[in-house]
Amino acid sequence: MQPPGTEQESETSPIYSKPEPEPQPTEPEPQPTEPELQPTEQEQQPTEQEPQPTVQAEIRTDAQRPSFKSWVHAHPFCFSSLVVIVVLSILTVIIVPSAVCSTAGCGSSKNDNEPESIANSLRLLVRFTEPDASVAKLLPLLSKYFNTTKLGSSRLEVLQFEDGKFLTEVKNLLKAKYADKLDTLGDDFVLSSGTTVQVPLTALLSPEAPPQPEAPIQPAQPFAPNMPPISDTEVIASRGRRSAQAVLDSTKPDPFEPLMWHLKAVNAAEAWALTRGLPEVIVAVMDGGIDIEHPDLKGNIWVNKDEIPDNGIDDDRNGYIDDVYGYDFAGPCTVDWRSTISPPPAPATTSAPPPSAAAGRSLLQSRRSPPPPPRSPPPPRSPPPPFNANPVDRLWSPFECGSDNDPRPDKPMDNGHGTHVAGIVAAVRGNKIGGAGLAPRVRIMVLKVADPWNNFYASNVFAAYDYALKMGAHVLTNSFGPRQPVFNPTAFQKAEAARQELLYTRAVQPLADKGVLLVAAAGNENSNLDGLRDVGMNYLPCTLDLPNVLCVGASDNATKLWQEVFYNRDIGTNYGPRTVDIAAPGVRVLSTTPFGDSVTGNYDLKSGSSMAAPLVSGVAALVLSVLGAESGNFFQAARAKSILLESGTTQTGLQVVTQRTVDAARAVQTAQAFGIDGVHLLAPMSVDVAAKSGALLRSLTESYYRLSAAMVATLEADVAKAPHVSSPALTTLGLTPFATAARPAAGALRGFKHNGADVMVAIRGHLNLPSRGVYGLRVASTSPLALIAVTVGQRRLSWKVQTAGSTYEARLQVDTAPAWFEFEVLYAGVADGIEYAWSFPSSFNYWGPLPEGWLVTATMAPAKPLPYVPRDMPTARNAPAFHVTAAVGGFQLLWSAMPANSTQLDATGSSPADPAAAIVFNPNFLSTLSPDQHYSYSVFVDELAFSTSTTFVSALAGGAITASRADAGALAEAGSGPVYGIATTYIQSIVDGLSAVAFRVTCTHCQLYLDGLLFHETVDAAYVPGFPALPTTTTRITPCVTLDPVRNANATGVNRPRHQLQIRFATTSRSSAAGLAIQHGACTSPDLDAFMSMRPIMAPAPWYRASSAPSSAANGSIQCDAWDSDAVGQPEYMQLANIPRPEDVPPLARFRMPNTRATSFVCPVGQLCAAGRNFTTTTNNVLPQNSLPSSLYVRCWAWMGRGFRSGLVTVYLSDRLPTVVYLAGQQVFRSGDWTVVRQSRAPNTTFLSGNFRQIMAVEWHGVSPFSWLSMTEGRVDFPSDVSVSIPIDTSFFAPAP
Ligand SMILES: [Ca+2]
Ligand SMILES: [Ca+2]
Ligand SMILES: [Ca+2]
Ligand SMILES: [Ca+2]
């Protein structure tokens, strides 16, 4: 059985080769549809296609010379000969590459010159700020040289010129004289439907393909405009309307539906169970022509009921004569109307019927009549038509060979694009032929805006927008965009792009205002549209920044973005994590094509975002059918857009804004949820929070903001204006964060550290809901001041407390589960606490707290090892016995004494009388501490367990020290004033399964951070705003922490993730009692006494404790690893390359220092190093020279039993390349320029008590075989005395490899 669509097209003209699906199954190569990819068309229609802009440009130039022009009029025959010669010579140029293109794949660079030729458009688009202004009024003397149409909605004026020089004149005059009145002005510009890939239907139709419909097709119905569409049996529940004549049942599938994978991919069947769309919903397809007589479309074509067809009268007075199914804004021109070679075939007046082939006959009649003869250019010597001598603003009318009322495809050039798009939206379902559109009962308004060469001129598109708005379309589908994205724009191109965007925005704004949705295709250049944005370009209309514009990319059947190789060319959808909203199936989509059999119709497969956009338009039509079912208001673009985006299926990593593909079923279900009064649909986060995070805190974070007086007034007037404090607009809102902390997630929120009418607290976390359904959230406050805004799953719920004790409730619909939702409470006018309670789908009348673990705060980053720290500690195999120990871990304490004359401000912004108090009591000060800043001293301790100031200060100074030590000043400093710093350790979940821990913390003031996330703060509530008495030490228990919530089953032992635990502290030794201590315990035991030593959960760290002091007899050593720069990869601009660990990526070469082949210097300072035992070399000294690449990354490292002398280290590299030094997890040195004195700011390591050793790593980035690598320490006068190198003594130890 021969499938439909494979019959030979009987009407195919011998002149043209039809780019439609070919019947030969042996023909494997699909025919491209883009002009660039249509060599056959180009070859056979050269005079009408590519040469056009060039010829136009040529004539434009000539038009500047009236003498030549008058010569043309006087010698028309000579001129036409000249044109023929010009055209033929261009032909020669065009055909050759075209022929190559057809066999070897098509490049896409041919349009490079097009912007210039387009700039010579004969149409100008103008908009004034004053509604009544017009060009004709302002420039009456010039008005006879143009026709003008003003679009009612956008007030854009389209000026049509006969001659480019008048256009230029008008443009210049407007800019010079009326700049104050001008809103925008620009040349008309051209878009295109871009590359779509076409596949012959035979590729899809296998022997198992569904059979042809057996039942006889219903008798062909007369298809007259005034006939109502074929009715069907559907019950429209909301209207209670039922059709009496049941001839069509859209609940029944059609034969091609099993082949329409895109329907299944978006769960169309589930959506159709709820709605197949309402006939009141109108989708305007703006494209090439649509075959409105296609048997699978004609039942769903919109009809303008107020227009009597074919009487030559604009019955409904909308400005368009006999516009029954829509309009053809571009027309069938055989030549571009912008060319002055081809004068228009008819004068432009409002009263005359349009000069289309169908003029004077009904569309039905014209269909029955023989096809029109092949079009040919009008004689070039015809004189230009007389323009109306006194043009006034008038309604849209045919310009030259332009618009007409027949929006059907222009045979035979039409590539089927428009008809295909229309079928995807709304092909008829239940008629037992073909397939089904996604919204098979909505209506299609036919707006033909493309000419037969796929040119979508903006002037035509804008006029169509105006028409669609006027005639009540609810959704517009736009499968077109720029001819070619320009990623290296010139200043001129950028300025043009900005002008075009402004024009376009003006044209679409009225649609946004009314609530008409515009669904646009992202294009098929396989390009990142974010990149276009970044270089100041755009991709119209997809990148329009308007709330009703939805930008759609194409996905394949594996739910990845569409990409494939086609004719040796990589093609694929455009994408953009900041620009393209969502993806939808757009590959090998089966749909209707024109010129087919009047009973079965034509079908084919096409690929591209051009197919994805109408699919989304169909889903939008279903959503609007639900949203407007009760009210009849289908103009709900913003709501439909957010439903479409939020209800999509998450495909993590998909390069679109939402990381989602569209899901019709969930979209319709979501729309129904909107219909339930007071229910808010929650939008899930697009990531699995637990999988992404190294740790989950069973708590909410809280941040405090001081509100400006203006913001307080704003909030009191309208609590819904509470800002999103995480937004970039924060600063403009007058909010000043002044403290952060965390609190348990369950129960009431009270006991705020700061309060007052001008204080707002932001409480945030991540909500994990396990099942679908409707949840309840109840919030109560006893404060009459309270202004509360809860944002959950991107739904903002705002309440203003009217009377103390008021209770507020919201119902929250969850359609995706399990899923994570962002949760934020903004509480302004902080006074007494607020309470919240939840109800659940299973028990709606129960109100209570959330179960443990449902509301958490995540680190949102995995725990990562430090790249320069070796995975393994020294072992008996690779180290002398005195290095081997079971006691790993410990704490590193980095600290500084506060300078005596500190200028630290307190939280209120004033400088306190007592600087010590300012440091100790200002919680913001702790937040500013960072391990990247410089601290004067460092020391290591086994445990942080100091209960008094005496023991603590002693520990800071490294215990018993002697006056002979260089760092003896530390104890004196610490003993005389307040100190601050960071204590760091690394923890991991232990093997026996303990993964949730809490900590017991003792301090005067401290903050705890886990993997960088603040989760506990001890700061007494009483401190603000005055300066009360100095606090005593406080002991508190932190919220519970779940480590490694999604455990990697293979991660055991040392491979388990390490989490950095950081305690930032400030204390004073002058206090009678001040200490610092931390213990850990199980989350289930709130008993303070149940907490114990940190040792069981401490992980290997960038330091460890050896079993005994190093042997003085042992030689020191440093291990160096070298990688080929090419293998490691280039760093980001201004960043360091990420040099791997040798365990992860084997180095190209390894060597040790000291090295007998290394360059040797005498070490004169204190005679510390013998010859050859210093650190100075080139890599070609120590490595086989012939094996070295030109550029290496070199890392040298060792466990170091001391610090750098006086905290100073200098690194030398004889190239201007980065060097960096890490010491015990801290980056203590970084330089990218050898001219800078390379002095480190490492902390002065006071004392490695208990045989601690810390990892020292120095990295040289981009080393040539001849680069000098050298380290010195304890000196500042480098490099004048290069002989001072670091002595590799017994302080340095590297395990045997
Ligand atoms: Ca009309
Ligand atoms: Ca009429
Ligand atoms: Ca037409
Ligand atoms: Ca059908």
From TrEMBL:
Region (Disordered): 1-56, 208-228, 338-418
The keyword Membrane belongs to this UniProt entry's keyword annotation: yes
UniProt keyword list: Hydrolase, Membrane, Protease, Serine protease, Transmembrane, Transmembrane helix
Composition-biased stretches (Polar residues): 1-15
Organism from which the protein derives: Pleodorina starrii
Any single GO BP term: proteolysis
Biased composition (Low complexity): 34-54
Key word Hydrolase present: yes
Molecular functions (GO terms): serine-type endopeptidase activity
Biased composition (Basic and acidic residues): 405-414
UniProt record similarity statement: Belongs to the peptidase S8 family.
Biased composition (Pro residues): 22-33, 342-356, 369-388
Name this protein carries in UniProt: Peptidase S8/S53 domain-containing protein
Domain Peptidase S8/S53: 280-647
PROSITE patterns: SUBTILASE, SUBTILASE_HIS
Active site: D287, H417, S610
Listed transmembrane segments: 77-100
